[in-house]
Amino acid sequence: MSCAAGGGVPILMLTAMGQTEARIAGLQAGADDYLPKPFEPQELVLRIRSILRRAGTAARPAPVEIRLGAVRFDSAQGILLRHDTPVRLTTAETALLRILADPAGRVLDRQTLSETCLNGGGVRAVDVQIARLRRKLEPDPKNPRYLQTVRGRGYVLRPDS
Fold first, then answer.
1. Cα–Cα–Cα angle for 66, 128, 156, nearest 5°?
2. In the chain, which end has fewer C-beta atoms inside a 10 angstrom radius, N or C?
3. 12-55 in CATH: which number?
4. In angstroms, what is the C-alpha Rg of the chain?
5. In 10 A of CB 28, how many CB atoms?
6. What fold does the segment set 65-149 form as a domain?
7. Do residues 91 and 117 lie in contact, with contact meaning Cβ atoms separated by under 8 Å?
8. Closest by alpha carbon to 35, among 117, 10, 43, 136?
């Protein structure tokens, strides 16, 4: 099943328009499911679970700890440790590291990182935050091993296996 948004986000239309023509139009427009009002809350929950399952985005456990050489990042708590010593992260750095870590190995473009983590702070702000994170994560920030740039695409976090 392909998700309507093209970006992996399933769409469930909740609407007062329950006529057949409206349901067909909603599904043709790209919705993954259509639920007219009034509806039972239990049915809504079941439909949401169903489209998430079909889209392959059902809740999967995020890795709790990511290892980056001598550095460990606890994504659940937002704590970065170097040799068991806490390393201070700003809110923006924590948000960036969390999104890059879930799932690790996925390339994220600067625009997505800016909109998701920096509240639209701009793509250049992402570059600044990435440079700051590299200084905290990498043994040699000039030659990053873990937080890498993928030319023309964005950034990727490559933790130890």
1. 35
2. C
3. 3.40.50.2300
4. 20
5. 8
6. Arc Repressor Mutant, subunit A (1.10.10)
7. no
8. 43
Give the pLDDT of the chain (161 residues) as one tens digit per residue. 333 444 567 888 888 888 888 888 888 888 888 888 888 888 888 888 888 777 765 455 555 789 999 999 998 888 999 998 999 999 889 989 988 988 778 899 988 888 877 766 778 889 999 999 999 999 999 999 999 999 999 999 999 86
Q: What is the pTM of this model?
A: 0.60
Residue type, position 50, single letter: S
Cα atoms in the 13 Å half-sphere on the side-chain side of 52: 10
Residue boundaries of the structural domains of the chain: 12-55, 65-149
Tell me how far CA of residue 89 lies from CA of 23, 73, 97, in angstroms.
47, 11, 10
Tokens found for residue 17 = 């328009």
Three state DSSP letters for the chain: CCCCCCCCCCCEEEECCCCHHHHHHHHHCCCCEEEECCCCHHHHHHHHHHHHHHHCCCCCCCCCEEEECCEEEECCCCEEEECCEEECCCHHHHHHHHHHHCCCCCCECHHHHHHHHCCCCCHHHHHHHHHHHHHHHCCCCCCCCCEEEECCCEEEECCCC
